[in-house]
Specification:
The structure is a homotetramer of 304-residue chains. With 304 residues, chain A is of the alpha+beta class. The first copy, chain A, has a single domain, classed as DD-peptidase/beta-lactamase superfamily (Beta-lactamase). Helix content of chain A is 47%, strand content 12%. Chain A has 13 helices and ten strands. In chain A, helix 3 (66-78) packs across helix 5, helix 3 (66-78) packs antiparallel against helix 11 and helix 7 (152-161) crosses helix 9 (182-193). Chains in contact: A-B, A-D, B-C, C-D. The interface between A and B is medium-sized, with 15 and 15 residues.
């Protein structure tokens, strides 16, 4: 095993010194006000040793990263039936395009694009008694951390501006692939996206995807087959239309969010999260990608 | 001039005797209950002589035919500025597809597809003090007939099932091409579509498009240039992805609606409307198209 | 009837004085060398009176205008069977796109886009003993003018650079919608496009489309139904993705070519051709469109 | 390390006993004649121990599997400059669609779809003195096996029917992304696809992708970074529009061909190849996918 703390310190220094041409997401007004100079990184290994640098303990909006967690919960609840309503192939399209959805009669390409995540949200709204509360409890249990919560301001902000998500939900509804009311599903969806977590908390939560389905407290949530599926989806679909680039540059399954977070993992080895609000043109955290590329190159640890 | 009444009687007989494999529109529940055997035809010439057969005086839901009337009203109100927000080219796509809208950054292909008509509705909601009342008054004035009105049941029925229109409106909103609230615009849109009119009333209303912009009472509403534009749009875009077929088979500018109505006109000669609720695969009235094809073939009167 | 010579003289003057931001087509090397300042217009009425101005007698490459003539010849040879291999709807896409062809399994949208015209060329290669000679004879007979001929240099130039047409032909072949060898069909196609004709000769040739299927010498070539179909196709599909704009601005069925020619007609009234090599962004002659718009506005003669 | 021979024997038995609804590829006539009941599997581990069952020594047409080898050779020759002419993202589309190519102005989505592989072929035709001979020598050297060769009959058969590839090459040419003559590039391309190899030979050849760029004879061909890129591409793009499914079911970087072969590898562990001519609906070997899924499930060895 490499000296992770040394790697992380070196990456932290290197990234902060490199020039930055990224932009903070502005389409959700509440996100636009985040300080763009923030940068944090946290890594947890299989022995639950922790390594960190920068703003790794500061909370931010996880946004699309939450799609892995709702998928995970839904898979635990209803199992393989999920795949009747959402496919598992990369989309080859930016994250918000509806064209494919139309061409394919309302079956989203995968559960990590918006339309697919809205279908997963619909499943949870159907299956859970108190969807928002129950999902929050699920995430808190995974991370063993009750301080994780929604950011109502962000949820509200997205509700007022999330017209593309309303378009997607209504289109799904028109194809019969949304069982609940559009408003109910999107209320849940905007809340899941508003989850506020730090790099450390993301590592704690995603620990089970690196640990064959067992969380930090060694409780089993998913079987190895389900974990394999989720990791495969993160690798092929986790970075919008930059999935191929991330697979090469970093070589780890992972997921990004427009809040500037990225979480990635090497099965049976470690889980790592970064946060830097500045996004590249494809909507992924620029410094986060740079840091993770340095990490896997430096340590020579990747799935490839 | 041919003997229109003779032609119409002969067409009426012929159409009723021909086999019928059409289907009544079912996606708007209120429309599904219409009796499929109804068939009416009405023609008015430049001397305001009227010729009719069958259920030509019975009211039905005009649906998409109303798009020509909102376009006409909006063009009268704000003029050529309309074309900054909606294009004038045929779409080559079925009437409800959103793909093109995405590819072209929120500018609908033309004002006669749903997305384009929703933009026109948005313009009227902005420009009119009491949009629904004012538009109804406009139509009644064109036709010189105060018995024309909305069918609230149909409007409500579409509101509860019009998910693709909600998708289109939200997508337009996401591109900044909808100024008012989605709900307000669609409330207006569902009402305009619910206009209940007979074949005769459609002829009275569309008289001005055949008469260089002057209505039956000889009041000028649009100039010849605007009328030319609207007639050109009807010809190239009035029949979803069957516009080319209609241009050939019938050879008249016209517009259809899923309620089973079609209105068409030969500039400076006549205006004709048909109603038969059974639709062909492309969503146009099967018997209406047949009747109009017979009319222009029999009379050798078309624009070509 | 208006004083056509006066209108044409006035338009000629006006057009030459207006600013010009057009570009001569450069993708066929032989066309790039044409003098961009050329401008001609010719009109023939039903009494076969001729009106002209500018370079109306100078020959140029008719290019896509020839698609109407091959369609006309093929329709005369095998009739309605044509429509099994090519559709009649506007494409809503620029003239050289293959995407639609793929989506629609090798059936081109209409016979006036490149893929559709290549299918028509394939039909003629099958039906004619000496395709190039026989088609040339057909055109000469229509125009009653044996001086019309191919420009071998232009045909050769396009053969060496027409990769998109090779792509289209091979794609058609892969779908089984090309019966002859790609090389044979394209050799014919590049020749038909290389037809060299003046504005006057275009008017003489297209006379039958304005005259219900009878050419200048009063010989019938097509029945009224076939003429209606061709005129409808010119109106809805004759100007690439500017068909809607042309329908409105000019209001006549017509066809343009990248050589800078346009021919248009008002059924039973007149046929008109213009030539100016500078193209607008959509690939249609800029001054030609301007001249025709002026003509129909000035004379108040259009189909709408 | 698991007992690979035991696993393979068990899989061999299981696969042969399971029902089979696959079809042998028929679009290349020469491939249609292969006996559909053939099935072979071969595995080589990092100690160069070999494990095999069935027709693992019988040669078949590798077809698209060759795309990884031409990519590898081109990357060795001109390095990262490759990525100016071909992208690295999954296509989300069947393997032969040209639509994306048009939308993206002639830059293929990745080097493992046909259009991308044709660009790579073009690079090799430019860079190599005797392209076909030099590439064959390269493959023979990788595998340390001079018995590998082209199947001229297959190459010729594809040349006579490969219209979609001709369409793709011409489209690339029209965008300036093909430097050599279409015929020269496709002659090379059809030959690379016609490579005739056994499962054993595929394992020998692909050994370097599992062994950080060093072939069986421990000669370095590519650096670890280039190997990572190629493995990432195989994982995200190696199975047409079934890449996501393969990533999950099997969890290994790999590549399939319509000849019924699949090769896959676990970095630093093993390389495995299967052959069974029957294809599933997405064009991948049905029994090959089944066998590899069993292998990684049984041994619990995958990248996830």
């Amino acid at each position: 095993m490499p000296d992770f703390q040394k790697s992380i310190d070196s990456i932290y220094k290197e990234v902060l010194e490199s020039p930055d041409s990224s932009t903070v997401a502005s389409y959700i007004p509440e996100l636009a006000s985040v300080e763009s100079s923030k940068f944090g990184i946290h890594l947890i290994d299989t022995n639950q040793h922790n390594y960190a640098a920068g703003n790794s303990g500061e909370k931010f909006s996880v946004q699309s990263i939450s799609k892995v967690l709702t998928l995970s919960m839904a898979l635990g609840l209803i199992g393989e039936k999920i795949w009747r309503r959402v496919d598992v192939e990369p989309s080859g399209d930016p994250f918000n395009h509806l064209s494919l959805l139309e061409q394919e009669n309302g079956i989203p390409r995968n559960p990590l694009i918006n339309a697919g995540a809205i279908v997963i949200a619909d499943i949870l709204v159907t299956e859970l008694e108190n969807p928002k509360e129950d999902f929050l409890t699920y995430v808190r249990n995974l991370a063993d951390d009750t301080s994780i919560s929604y950011d109502e301001k962000v949820a509200l902000s997205e509700k007022g501006t999330g017209f593309k998500n309303y378009a997607a939900a209504n289109l799904l509804k028109s194809y019969g692939n949304l069982r609940n009311d559009v408003e109910d599903v999107l209320d849940f969806y905007f809340h899941q996206c508003s989850l506020s977590m730090s790099c450390k908390q993301l590592c704690d939560t995603f620990y089970l995807f690196m640990n064959r389905g067992r969380c930090k407290r060694d409780i089993g949530y998913l079987d190895i087959n389900q974990i394999k599926r989720i990791n495969a989806l993160m690798l092929t679909c986790g970075f919008y239309d930059e999935a191929g680039e991330f697979a090469f540059e970093v070589g780890l399954p992972g997921k990004s969010g427009v809040g500037g977070g990225i979480v990635a993992l090497l099965p049976n080895e470690f889980c790592v999260a970064t946060w830097s609000p500045g996004l590249n043109k494809k909507g992924n955290s620029a410094r986060g990608m740079q840091a993770l590329e340095r990490l896997t190159t430096m340590t020579e640890l990747s799935i490839f």
